[in-house]
Amino acid sequence: MSRPEKPRSRRELLLNVGAILGLVCIVVAIASMLFGITPLVFRSGSMSPDIPTGSLAVARSVDASDIRVGDVVSVDNEVGTRITHRVIAIEPVGDGSVSLTLKGDANRVPDPSPYVVTTADRIITSVPVLGYVAAWLSSKTAIFIGGIIAGALLMLAFGPIRRPSDSTFPTDEPAEDSEPQLQEADHA
């Protein structure tokens, strides 16, 4: 007759969850490096309703020659602010560069000036609301809480498995089952 398996302990469950989250982080980091993938959080509603505020988008870096009218791309403007809008016109400039005219889906007019680029991040997909989560996870509060959780998981993994019983520590008290010992007195 086989013995029934013990249910998994809470400690084992927490360690498995931590390992899975760590693996997800590693896979995302490797995918970002190998495939030129960039996560983007939408902080405005200029691309609504297709990509609402608070969405998390995944973009991939592409050469200017691969950009088409209708693509949603992310580029930096002249002051370094990232702009993510739909391409409405493309003009070749030369040397592999193109001039892109962009317009947010919710905007009535195109962006005031074109963007000259050799590469751009093209949006592959987006998930509504997940951008709020990603933004919070990169906050100082979330990083602090993550550090506490990581520390707790390390303590669970490498800390004592069982609390030592009181009888393992030396004391001045005689053990209950031991015989009383006589103390010699110093008579001077």
What features would you highlight for this structure?
28% helix, 188 residues, 3 helices
Written overview of the protein:
The protein contains 3 helices and 7 strands, in the order H-E-E-E-E-E-E-E-H-H. The chain is an alpha+beta fold and 188 residues long. It is elongated and about 105 Å long. The termini are far apart. The model has no long low-confidence stretch (mean pLDDT 83). InterPro entries: Peptidase_S26, Peptidase_S26B. The chain crosses the membrane at residues 12-37, 142-161. Residues 165-188 are annotated as: Disordered.
Count of the domains: 1
* Fourth CATH level, the homologous superfamily: Umud Fragment, subunit A
Shape: elongated
Tell me the span between the first and last alpha carbons: 73 Å
- Largest sheet, if any? 7 strands, antiparallel
- List the strand order in the largest sheet: 1-2-7-3-4-5-6
Total strands: 7
% residues in beta strands: 25-35%
Per the CATH scheme, the topology name is Umud Fragment, subunit A
* Text of the CATH class: Mainly Beta
How big is the Rg? 31 Å
**Helical coverage, percent range:** 25-40%
Structural class comes to: alpha+beta
Series of H and E elements: HEEEEEEEHH
